[in-house]
Amino acid sequence: MDSKEFFGLCSFVPSLSESSLCTTGLKMYLVESKGGAIACMFLALFFLGTWPALLTMLERRGRLPQHTYLDYSITNFFAALLIAFTFGEIGKGKPDEPNFLAQLAQDNWPSVLFAMGGGVVLSLGNLSSQYAFAFVGLSVTEVITASITVVIGTTLNYFLDDKINKAEILFPGVGCFLIAVFLGSAVHSSNASDNKAKLNNYTSDYKEAAIISSKESDLVKSKDLERGSSSADNVEAGTAVFLLELEERRAIKVFGKSTLIGLALTFSAGLCFSMFSPAFNLATNDQWHTLPKGIPHLTVYTAFFYFSISCFVIAIILNITFLYHPVLNLPKSSLKAYLEDSDGRIWALLAGLLCGFGNGLQFMGGQAAGYAAADAVQALPLVSTFWGVLLFGEYRRSSRRTYILLGSMLFMFIVAVAVLMASSGHRSSSHTAKE
């Protein structure tokens, strides 16, 4: 691993303990090796696959999504600040690799605008997906949005990265993600049909069971973070009673609404997600030569700071607006009500931290191995599906057809991610001042 990488990683990765990384003086922490980039990607994969589960949990507990997203946005921005003032300020900067604070005073606004544009589309995508989780489910939403992100975003990053990734490997992987999009839509359609059949077959026996279960404090037979229950007397996940109880409790009511609403939200989120990584790529590598002569490229930390500022501002403006003018027939709220709503706040704040650090790690890995390969973190639906099945009872008591489609979708994702990572290249140093 290159000597520029931070020696603190040695305590976590024993194989680095004897490298020059651990013995040289402090310099700015820049991931430059392929191994370090892949490590960043795997950690980002876990973080980015977990935070949506926390937002889903809070919505299913009845917390207004506007309240949750405001909390999430605060810590998401805090993560960017922490990364900038630690990793971005470690050691002494150089003319072609200035520290974070030094770059704030430089004439680098063209790159700053690209970074901020990426933050805007990411914020819009995250906001859309938060509502899509309720309609389409955590697993399918993540699969479709991630696949669209890879199909469009990875293709753009491949050309922006001067084709450092292996096209003969990369594009078959992109094709696998495209297949996963169609499988994800099929899973959603099949699962919706299963749920409709369960409700249509709802008998008086179920109604009686529902009356009994409504007197219980815990509703779901699972290790469910929503209620923390494991009692065998609770309603089994996936039954008609479970679906009715969930609809009664959750913040976003989905019964009676067209499934096209959820798919529209999902596809719009995917289109937004597909643009933020190419925008960040342009911000850090200036492929279009928009910076003035002699101005160094933005480091990944400075770009991430500006990226997160715009993400934060858009989120605050839209969610405060939604407090007073809610969408999807949600109840009105207010800033006062938001400040007083502490139920579940800790989970929303944690979700923001996970997303912030996950995005930061993705960009750090992308700067080293190519942003096209770094899009392998879009395998996050594998993590989200795990949480969806374990915590929320997704696909419990579904039809065999749904299970086959679900398994096929996840298998295609595993193949696609493996292929995408195999296409990883290595970026030569690009943070040089313009001649």
Automatic annotation (TrEMBL):
Organism: Vigna radiata var. radiata
Chief location category: membrane
Family to which the UniProt record says this protein belongs: Belongs to the plant ureide permease (TC 2.A.7.19) family.
Annotated InterPro entries: UPS_plant, Ureide_permease
Signal peptide annotation: none
Protein name according to UniProt: Ureide permease 1 isoform X2
Regions crossing the membrane: 35-57, 69-88, 108-125, 132-157, 169-188, 259-283, 303-325, 346-365, 371-391, 403-422
Subcellular location: Membrane
Membrane topology note: Multi-pass membrane protein
Keywords: ATP-binding, Membrane, Nucleotide-binding, Transmembrane, Transmembrane helix, Transport
Pfam families for this protein: Ureide_permease
An example Gene Ontology CC term for this record: membrane
A GO term for molecular function: uracil:monoatomic cation symporter activity
